[in-house]
Amino acid sequence: MDTPADPFAGGALRVASYAALRVVDGTITHRGSYDELRALAPGDEVVDLTDGLVLPGFVDTHVHFPQVRIIGGLGMPLLDWLEHCALPEEARLADRDYAAGVAADFVRGLVSSGTTTALVFGSHFPAAVDTLFAEAERVGLRVTSGLVVSDRLLRDELLTDPERCHKESLELARRWHGVGRSRYAVTPRFTLSCSDELMAACGAVASEVEGARVTSHVNENPREIETVAQLSGGGHYVDTYDRHGLLGPATVLAHNVHPTDAELALLAERGGSVAHCPTSNAALGSGLFPLARHLAHGVRVALGSDVGAGTGFSLLKEGLQAYFAQQLLGERGHPLTSTHLLHLATAAGADALGLAEQVGDLSVGKRFDAQWLRPAPGSPLDVGLRHARDAEDALGRLFALGTPGDVARVWIDGEPVAGG
Ligand code: GUN
Ligand code: ZN
């Protein structure tokens, strides 16, 4: 199953039962029946994936590398959670060996959950960012990441200055941008922790690294938004990025739970994307994501796990929570089908990351980034799938009941990266 046609624009779920894909050097070259493809290529190795579901690999558009070991810190709103849960752990990544261990946990967490592409919030420490890129390269993950920068209001050891930011970011981009599947993302943490001078340095890096992506946070929590308004002297939160050239088609801003209409209009005009992170929004009590308003303005939206405020790596869980949030909004919510959820977790993410020509669905010409979901016989998911009315119903059961434990195998560029 996949979603090559956008269901938010009327597209339907694509289902191919007992079908075959031919993959040559990591690219899907044919789709058809098994007999057709066997006749076409009688010498090919056959990988039998009957008795399960094959989906495109998930695309996580917002996830924090240094936070894998603190998932599940409940009971605090954003700024308290940062101070007491996230930032003490992030400071530990000053130690390169510690960072390397975290990178291994992190990349394993992603791929074992069916995620094959991710836009990753890196670390404040360049050597730690190196360990992330190195581990992603070793495993094969399609990663976009970079040095996280801040110069105010966080603990001292996480702060930098504009000159150092510029120098260290360019060094990392030189080492990793465009190398294999890795790309660089300019990453100011959020306006609360970044002065105008630091944002300007980020803007300079973004313009000097051709094809660089940009990512940050926006409009997540009322106290955060109020502090940003006080610090930035007029204008709105989205403008604090835009005025430094940090908002464009290559930008992904996470959360945007409390936008004004003017901010949504500017996001749409610039072609920026929003990473919707529903388990994080629920866990930190940030609020219910106004999806209908984003869609009405034409803002591109995809899914992010936001580990570690988010409660796990699985975009199945994020999809289900995205559905819940729209239900809870009542008339202000946008009703979501399982097809919408799959699209948000795959093709929409590929589009937000500028990778739609390579990944996001299983069309001919795309890279074979895929996952095989195969629940244990007799498990609730197995029972549900066997009794589903149709494919879309089966997909709903998968979002409701599926976990990383159901991900039997994962491929990136046709190569197995996790599972048997
Ligand atoms: N805003 C700034 N930093 C963070 C973070 O680490 N997590 C979340 N959810 N929001 C942030
Ligand atoms: Zn985040």
From TrEMBL:
Cofactor: Zn(2+)
Sample GO molecular function, one term: zinc ion binding
One BP term from GO: guanine metabolic process
GO cellular component, one term: cytosol
Keyword terms of this UniProt record: Hydrolase, Metal-binding, Zinc
Entry annotated with the keyword Hydrolase: yes
Entry EC number(s): 3.5.4.3
One matching Pfam family: Amidohydro_1
Domain spans labelled Amidohydrolase-related: 53-417
The organism's place on the tree of life at top rank: Bacteria
Keyword Metal-binding: yes
Name the UniProt record assigns to this protein: Guanine deaminase
Lineage: Bacteria, Bacillati, Actinomycetota, Actinomycetes, Propionibacteriales
